[in-house]
Every structure is written in C-alpha cells, then in structure tokens.
Amino acid sequence: MTALGAVVLFIGWSGGAFGQEVPPLPVKKFDLYLSGHVIGLFPQDKDLSVGGNRISNTDVRGTIGAGIKFDMYPWFTKNIVGAEIEVFGLGGSVRAPRTTSGGGTTQAQGSLIAITTMYNLILRYPGETIQPYIGAGVGSSTGILYNVNIQSGNVGLSGTSGDLAFAYQFIGGVRAFVTKQLFLFGEYKYFVTQYSWDSGGTGNQRVKLDFQSQIVSGGVGWSF
To answer: Of 2, 18, 141, 190, which is the most buried if we count CB atoms within 10 A?
Structure first.
C-alpha cells in the first residue's frame, strides 16, 4: 500500500468514526421540587358555635407553623401545570370573654393545633431564575383543641378534643433560583376549614369553629 493510499484510508476511517451523530440526551420527563417552609398565620375572627348558638366576640389568634411540600411538573404540560402535595402544622388559640345573661354563662378559651394535608393544582411560569405561580387545593385538616374551657348555658367542652375536617385553599407565590437546583420562595395562602368537636351537656351538642386564615410562608427548596 502506498503512502497516499494509507492517508486516504485513515481519513475515511476517521470521518466515519468521529462523524457519527451523538445520541441526544434523554428528555427530562418531570421537574421535581422538594421544599420546606416556615409559616405565619393571621386568622379571621369567626364566632364559635355551641349547639347552634354563637359565642360572640370570639378572638382567634395564630402563632407560627412549619411545613414540607413536594411539586411535580410533567413534560406534557410544557412544565407549566403541576401537582403539589404538602403537609403543614400550625398553632393558635381561641378566646371569648365571660358573659352572663338570662341564658346562662358564656365563655371560651383553648389552644389549637392544626395538622393539614393538602393536594394542590399549580400554574406557573417556568422561568430559569424567577417562577411566579398561582394555585388552589383541597385536603383534610385535623384540629386539636386542648386546655379547653368552653361554656354556653348548660353545654360545655373541656379537656382535649380533635376533629378531622375538609379544607380548601388558594395560593400565590414566587420561586427564585440561587443555583440550578437551590431556590428560595415566598407564598401567600387563603385557607378555610370548619372544625366540629363533641361537647358535654344537653344532647351532646357540637362545638364548631369556622377557621379562616391568611397564611404567609417562606422557605428553601431543591430541584431534582
């Protein structure tokens, strides 16, 4: 074989070897986010109801809470529409002044813990750095009322009582990516549920609280 032939053969082989198409990288099927957050809540004052009779001037207060959530945005929605599951806990208190009238004595005091699981539908702008989003969700909330002294006439509730109730919420927020994976976020929620606890006294009537709260939270998360 001549030198010229060897050169031609080498060029042909290298063109075939190095000219092959590189297979495309696998398409990412989902955007997955895991995050944790701290919650501040601002409940609206809604009167307690004891056996259908309202205890006026009920003061519902919130403390702080915390939660964790997991988001998934599938490729077939162009990573715009996603599903989210979250679990959060928060605390508060319920108070109403002691009053006496022809119907008897009315008063209320107690501490509240709420543990909630929500399933949310999220619509977002899938930006690389900033991602505003809105959403809505439904789920269940367990309201535990403890250190209780609630009285309305001959109906009362004391000790500790719990209730599992339907809940729903509306959401608005924004994510800001610090790196490709690490992000910070802030969020606003309007959260609604109604707890109902067993009472003692005539007819074992129910103690009900229409719990509506504005929730502001902030946290940190990771994109997979």
So the answer is: 141
The string of DSSP letters for 140-208 reads: EEEEEEEEEEEEETTEEEEEEEEEEEEEEEEEEEEEEESSSSEEEEEEEEEEEEEEEEE-EEGGGPEEE
Beta strands in 44-129 (DSSP E): 48-50, 53-55, 59-74, 81-101, 104-124
CA distances from 172 to 40, 117, 160, 195, 220 (A): 15, 18, 34, 25, 16
Helix (H) or strand (E) holding 15: helix 3-18
At residue 66's C-alpha, the angle toward residues 96 and 58, to 5°, is: 10
CA 104 to chain CA centroid, nearest Å: 41
User: What's the burial of 78, exposed, middle or buried (CB within 10 Å: 0-12/13-18/19+)?
Assistant: exposed
pTM, to two decimals? 0.82
Residue 77 to residue 74: CA distance in whole angstroms: 6
Task: Tell me the CA end-to-end span of the chain in Å, nearest whole number.
Answer: 56
Closest Cα partner for 169 from 137, 143, 140? 137
CATH class of 28-223: mainly beta
The more confidently predicted of residues 153 and 46 is 46
Q: How confident is the model at residue 203 (pLDDT cuts 50, 70, 90)?
A: low
| Amino acid at site 148 | V
152 and 53 in contact (C-beta within 8 Å)?
yes
Residue 7 banded pLDDT, cuts 50, 70, 90: very low
Mean of pLDDT values over 124-153: 93
